[in-house]
Every structure is written in C-alpha cells, then in structure tokens.
Design a protein that fits this description.
By secondary structure, this protein is of the alpha/beta class. The chain has helices at 6-17, 34-41, 75-82, 90-97, 142-149, 160-163, 168-185, 216-222, 227-244, 253-256; strands spanning 25-26, 48-56, 62-68, 85-87, 114-118, 127-130, 136-140, 153-154.
Length: 258
C-alpha cells in the first residue's frame, strides 16, 4: 500500500474502514475520461461512475455529482437541490477534494462537501469509480456509493434522448460501422479492438447493448480476456448482427459502384 500514490492510499484506507470488498486497482494507462476507463476495464461507458464537481456559490462548498459515464449532468437539476452553482476550476477541485481532475474519487475528500448520486447508475449491477489518481479505479455496486458516502440518490442528469438522439439514421450508421469492423477482425492476431461504438444503452428486450451487440457479461469479461477470447466475442457479435441486421454487411450503392 505504501507504494501507491498518496491519494490512492487515502481511498484504500477509507474503503478498508468501511469493509468494502474491493481495493483500488492501478491501470497501465491513464483513465482521465469515462471512455478511457471503460476501454481499459472492458466495460460499458455507463458503468464508469464519474465524479463531476461544482462550487456552491453561497458558501464555496464543493458539490460532487456521481453519475454514469454516458450521462451529462443537468446543472439546473443539481442547483434546484443544493442551491446556485458556479464552475469549479482545477485549483478548487484539488483544494476541496485533495484529488486532481481525472482522478477524483467519490470518497476520502480533503474537506467536507455535498454529494449527490445519480439514479441512472442503478441500471448496472457493477460500476467502477476513480480511486484518487488518473490511473486508479475501484469496483463497487451502485448501492455501495450510498453506503460509502451517505449521500442521497437523485435524478440529476439530462434525458438520454437530449444527449444522444439515437434516430434511425444514427442507429443505422452505428450498425454499419460495427459490421465493417467485424469483417476485419478475423485477420487480426493480436491487439483485438473493442466492439464499442460509443452507443451504450442496453436493450431490455434482447439483453444486448444497442451499440456493440454485447451482453453485460460480455462487456464485463472483455478486459479479462486474451486476444483469442476477444475474437470469440467478436464472432458472437458478428453472428448477432448477421441475424438481426443482414443488410449491414452489404456495401452501399456508392461502394458497389466503385
């Protein structure tokens, strides 16, 4: 533990004090954004519990909103609950939380603040949060955030449709992109890329992500799989695509004429 960065040590100690079963994990690369963290862990972007900091104007207290990586915080909804807000710069975040932007943990802050947990995190059985350093994360269940922080759960994000309008044209483009990538995977022996196309929404009917056609279990296992395992997952994705969207594998009229 003494070899860990100071911020990670604080988070680790706080987790131990609460008897949390999962310790911080140091990633090989930085995970300053939700997408970077999701790619490194092999999970959906929505499973990254990102920390957004605001400054409450009336008393300069830090307001932390913990939400899914695929959601955008609605500042007006937050202000309606805690009071008028201002922007928090890097210096303010470091002073109030003790962490640098990109590694702000939802726990073990340097100074007391206000925390809200967005209810959209509860779409998932398992999520990951920053552990006090851009390379550090820890695993937990959404309910654990309530236990660890004592914070309330609220609806404080923009409607998904407002953030990512998934109309027929956008959906078709995402599926075409996935199909085009699927064709190239069989020739790869190593460094097999993730099927993620930045459309992270689970279809409750099929149990598949609407963007990458993986199950939650597939997404969870991705980061633990070797290249052979990843190619097997790609084969399953390709089969699902061919069954549900066979036209995605046909060239467009403009491509066919070339």
């Amino acid at each position: 533990m003494t070899e860990l960065p100071e911020g990670v040590q604080r988070v680790s100690a706080a987790l131990q004090a609460k008897n949390h079963p999962h310790s911080p994990v140091m990633l090989d690369g930085a995970a300053r954004t939700a997408q970077q963290a999701a790619d490194a862990l092999g999970v959906a972007v929505g499973q990254i519990a990102k920390s957004i900091i605001f400054k409450r104007i009336e008393d300069d207290v830090a307001v932390l909103v913990v939400t899914s990586g695929d959601r955008r915080v609605d500042e007006a909804k937050v202000a309606a609950l805690v009071g008028p807000l201002g922007r928090a710069n890097a210096g303010f975040v470091k002073d109030r939380t003790g962490f640098s932007i990109g590694g702000v943990s939802p726990i073990a802050h340097a100074k007391p603040g206000v925390t809200l947990i967005d209810q959209d995190l509860f779409r998932f059985d398992e999520v990951w949060a920053a552990a006090g350093h851009p390379h550090a994360v820890f695993k937990l269940q959404p309910q654990d955030l309530v236990t660890l922080t004592g914070a309330p759960v609220a609806q404080v994000v923009e409607a998904p449709e407002a953030e990512n309008p998934l109309d027929a044209q956008a959906r078709a483009f995402a599926i075409k992109t996935l199909a085009a990538r699927a064709i190239t995977i069989s020739a790869m022996a190593e460094n097999v890329p993730s099927p993620c196309v930045n459309v992270c929404r689970m279809d409750t009917g099929s149990g598949l992500c609407e963007g990458c056609f993986r199950t939650i279990d597939d997404i969870r296992e991705w980061g633990r799989s070797d290249d052979a395992g990843k190619k097997t997952m790609w084969a399953a994705v390709t089969q699902r695509l061919r069954q549900t969207h066979p036209d995605a594998f046909n060239p467009s009229p403009s491509q066919a004429s070339l």
